User: What shape does this take?
Amino acid sequence: MSNTTRFTVVGAGHGGKTMAAHLGLMGFPTTLYNRTSANIAPIKMRGGIELDSTEGAPRGFGELALVTPDISEALAEADVIMVVVPSTAHADLARVAAPHLRDGQIVVLNPGRTCGAIEFSKALSDSSCEADVTVAEAETLIYACRSDGPAQARIFRIKEAVPLAALPATRTAKVLEALAPAYPQFIDGVNVLHTGLDNIGAIFHPALALLNAGRIESGGADFQFYIDGVTPSVGRVLEVLDRERVTVASALGIRARTSLEWLHMAYNATGADIHEAIHNQPGYYGIMAPTTLNHRYFTEDIPMSLVPIAALGSRYGVSVRGMQSIIRLCSIIHRTDYWSRGRTLDKLGIETASVAELTRYVTDGTRD
Assistant: This one.
């Protein structure tokens, strides 16, 4: 594929608007879909999105080929479908999209969180989707960005390397080839278990918000989330959760990056422990805490990231008591059951799979 590749971006939030604008600015025929027409009316009226940036990132007017709230219209001509919505919407989107997909299309979850591609593929299968579609997931959103207005977006940074994997992994090369003209930053992420278990946000976000809940709720949320929020004691909790994540990955035959390794890789930040490394990361200075506990750090990161990691741990004999404690406490705070709302193994269709069977499934698509 080339710059004639037809992209459809699903979602008109911070990431979706930025991606659509950038693709349009690069000259790719791009459609923007959002189910709520009012959210995209100003973009449709202007015919595109004005993109601003810092640090030399692209800027200008990203012209769009189509802006629509009609899923059938949005998917009809797409070669690559870039899904940029909260992961809590992945399964519902798959069910809505299923009747309108066609052979050869590529769906990329930006990002998949943990087991996103597995959930999306199962939802397509449960919806009797007959199209031969390749589903892939990115480990993280390629942009640091925000929406600056109804038809404006801003890029702060484009990540230099983002692991991506298809389900099955035998199709990853095909996806990378399709994306390369627009996004050479995507690299081979091995398989979707690797991308999902290297989900550092699952470790940092919920626990850090929970352990600062009193400060957030009392109206004292005007503090730096990482710099003020990660005290030595909080750092020790993060280290326990991180060890559990890495051990779950090891039980599946995966060498996951530790948080310290990730901080060094992503930001060149080093330290004797998580507390020290986070405070040695200049990019964390100025990032303020949420002003409410009704935040995606709970409502998305727990059910879509922490629950599936803990569920995999319980299935394969790994102690995940730290993760279970965080999930339980957050469930109490929000008066909900994040286990029942989350990506449990039965919802993913892998509840009886052995390690070998699960590995075969994500590698070559074989289901016993």
User: Anything to note?
Assistant: The chain has two domains: 7-189, 198-336. The CA atoms of residues 37 and 69 lie 5 Å apart. Residues 232-251 form the longest helix (20 residues). The mean pLDDT is 95.
